[in-house]
Amino acid sequence: MTYPQTVRTGATRLRERISYQHATAHAILDEAYHCTLSFVVDGEPRALPTLHVRIGDTLYLHGSAGSRPLLAARSDGIRVCVTVTHLDGIVYARSQFHHSANYRSAVAHGIARLVTEEPEKRRVLAALVDKIGTGRAADTRPPTRKELAETSVLALPLREVSVKARTGGPIDEEADLDLPFWAGVVPLRLTPGRAEPAAEVRRPTPDYLRPLRSPWLEPAPMHGTQVILEPLDMSHVDGLFTATDDPEVWRWSTATRPADRAGMAAIVSATLRAAEAGSRVPWVQRSARTGEVIGTTSYHAVDPDNACLSIGHTLIGRPWWRTGVQHEARFLLLRRAFEDLGAVRVQWHTDVRDDRSQRAIERLGATREGVLRAHRRHPDGTWRDSVLYAMTAADWPAARDRLATPA
To answer: Contact at 8 Å (CB) between 363 and 334?
Structure first.
């Protein structure tokens, strides 16, 4: 379906870049988190950035109850123009004149009405919250009557809409093609960073606020009868500090034992940055019986192309040593690696002096493959020799049968 071409939406130049397709316009509007609302009040032009959400063929615009366009729309509505633009790339040409940008934009014209019915307003505000995180509306408190009264919503029927877009590389003059200057496109993308919880938040970051990634880099939750593995989060700082506040827990670690909560927060933050960069996949370990945080573990050196990864950076509070918790956690990690991700090889590195860890890894059915000399640096600056263990997909069936039996 297409929108009709009108005086306001018709192309005056670069007609090949114009489109009136419903699906294209809807996709551009839906992808954007904000728009610009333009209107005229008392003969003066105004342009306001605001939030929007599309429901069917209506574009809803968020605003304050006291704002000028919403006050003006109380009677017969207000004529508006709404624009959305996605900047997809900077185009570098050999000549200054032909530098450009790749973009997708949508422009909608019409008369916007003020939403006055409470059910419609609640439905729109819930949709607006869900737009910034699918499932967020159900995960938050709905507005009170007072908050609803302080918030206004404009509804713009999508009837006069046009789309304009540019893609591709530079369009240089033929005479400039031999000039010794770089030309091409630098893509631009809007990507979410790691969610940063407020200081008082104690629950993990919801899945809908976590960026989509390769399954190999996704810390999928795993549940056993004794242990629960869930994605590491800043909300776990207090629990981890309490559980691992023991020098023996950190004895063979290449990280410095934190002296206080701030030190643990720095470690967790650094781990999450590594996860964001794709070099770690960290989990926190909880007791399945009590729900308390008891430790942490990770995948690292993840290499999907070669179907291999390492398991390590494991810390667990001493009260849970030799309880079967680690036995089950290792089983869950290996099962995900071999059965969910299709890994061909899983590795471990442990300090050559850490006999307890070596015995635990050998009980998994892993093979000792050698010693990596001067492999990791200790906090005091000395170098650690690491024992390398590995398990392959061919080893897994026998290991699985053995590990499925409680320790």
So the answer is: no
Given 142, 159, 187, the domain boundary residue is: 187
Helix (H) / strand (E) element for 332: namely helix 325-335
pTM attached to this predicted model: 0.69
Q: What are the Cα distances from residue 44, in Å, to 47, 168, 198?
A: 10, 38, 41
Q: Same domain, yes or no, for 258 and 217?
A: yes
CATH number for the domain harbouring residue 35: 2.30.110.10
Q: Specify whether 160 is located in the same domain as 226.
A: no
Alpha-carbon distance of 199 to 197, in angstroms, equals 6
CA–CA distance, 258 with 260 (Å, rounded to integer): 6
Provide the domain limits for residue 131.
Answer: 15-187
Q: Position of tokens 């019409």? A: 110
Instruction: Please tell me the distance from the alpha carbon of residue 302 to that of residue 279, in angstroms, as a whole number.
Output: 7
Encode pLDDT of 55-96 as tens digits: 999 999 998 766 666 666 667 788 999 999 999 999 999 999
d(CA 407, CA 397): 17
| DSSP annotation string for 355-407 | HHHHHHHHHTTPEEEEEEEEEEE-TTS-EEEEEEEEEETTTHHHHHHHHTS--
User: Pairing state of beta strands 100-114 and 151-157?
Assistant: antiparallel
Q: Is 278 a domain residue?
A: yes
Rounded to a whole number of angstroms, the distance between the first and last alpha carbons of the chain is 63
* Domain co-membership, 225 together with 181: no
In a domain, 351, yes or no: yes
| Dihedral Cα 190, 191, 194, 197, nearest 10 deg | 40
At which of 152, 187, 222 does a domain end? 187
Q: How far apart are CA 280 and CA 274, in angstroms?
A: 6
pLDDT digits (tens, 9 = 90+) for 107-157: 999 999 999 999 999 999 999 999 988 889 999 999 999 999 889 999 999
> Does 231 lie in the same domain as 333?
yes
d(CA 256, CA 263): 9
In a shared domain, residues 217 and 278: yes
The angle at the Cα of 350, spanning 354 to 270, to the nearest 5 degrees, equals 115
Number of domains in the chain: 2
Q: What is the DSSP string of 203-216?
A: SPPPGGGSPP--GG
